[in-house]
Amino acid sequence: MTLLAAAGTEPEPFHPPSLADFFPPVILFAEPTIPWFDGESPIFGINRIILVRLLAAAVLILVFVLGTRKLRLIPTRGQSLIEMGLGFVRDGIAIDLLGEKDGKRFLPLITTIFFMVLAMNLTGIIPGLNIAGTSVIGVPLVLALVAYIAFIYAGIKKHPGAFFKNALFPPGVPKALYVIVTPIEVLSTFILRPITLTLRLMMNLLVGHLMLVLFFAATHFFLLSAGGLFPLLSVGTLAFGFAFTVFELLVSVLQAYVFAILTTVYIQLALAEEH
Q: Fewer CB atoms inside 10 Å of the end CB: C or N, the chain?
């Protein structure tokens, strides 16, 4: 995406961001491959986005290991930040929605989802990384499936033998209406939930990346390649770029919160007594 304008050469045209940004070439382990619909696909291929994900996971693990290795009665600033984050997930999401007993039971899962999504969202605004690990479907889909499995597990554990029956055939509904109600329940409860969890997270970060690249690539183009009075426009695009970076920071936190709280709500619905 970088534009270079060398002295004495024709200025390069502006290259807007595209979906190709999310399918970078394989850097490591290009072999072995397996047949795929568009040719050969590496089995263990690692590209830039995979490296960003691995880096985010490594940093997250390192922060929590170092931050909780020597806990003090009077916490340091780092320990205070970690305790504040963990407390927010514990009290503001898990226990608040599930109660003390079930909140503590599902707390490890909800905490992992929140901080994993947050860490991989934030890579989209870190210089040098510049792409969110959640902007490609793999991670959002895996996390959505984990949330879906937790929802099914909680329901079966709480209401063995009755969970699916009550979910598909809600009590109190006239039997004649089950022809309409049951397909709607199948679609909304067991199909659309993981799909919407996946797409909500992925599309927010995908669009955010495209917008940031658009603003900063336009700034580079106007300043170094366009000539004439166009460099004046770079002031506006640069300002929009920084403003949208702050907005993306808020979106990163908000989407981590939304994903964690929806996972908790689904578990709460599975545990509800009416099931």
A: N
Sequence spans of domains, the chain: 61-271
Task: Give the residue carrying structure tokens 């209406």.
Answer: 177
Question: Residue 20, exposed/middle/buried by CB under 10 A (0-12, 13-18, 19+)?
Answer: exposed
- What distance in Å separates the CA atoms of residue 163 and residue 151, rounded to the nearest whole number? 11
Terminal CA-to-CA distance of the chain, rounded, Å? 53
Residue 3 has pLDDT above 50, yes or no: no
The stretches of the chain forming alpha helices (DSSP H) are 48-69, 77-89, 95-122, 138-158, 163-168, 178-185, 192-221, 233-271
CA-nearest of 259, 266, 148, 245 to 203 is 259
119/98 Cα distance (integer angstroms): 25
Does 11 score more than 80 pLDDT? no
* Residue 23 exposed, middle or buried by CB count within 10 Å (0-12, 13-18, 19+): exposed
pTM of the model: 0.89
For residue 257, what are its two tokens? Answer: 């919160």
Any idea what DSSP says for residue 5?
Answer: -
Say what the pLDDT of residue 38 is.
64
Residue 28 CA to residue 44 CA, distance in Å, equals 8
Report which residue type is found at 146. V
Looking up tokens 């793999």 gives 138
Token pair 């900063």 in the structure block, residue: 216
The letter for the amino acid at 171 is P
Nearest to 256 by CA among 62, 91, 130, 122: 122
Structure tokens, 121: 């969202």
Q: Give the SS3 label for residue 46.
A: strand
Other CB atoms within 10 Å distance of the CB of residue 271: 20
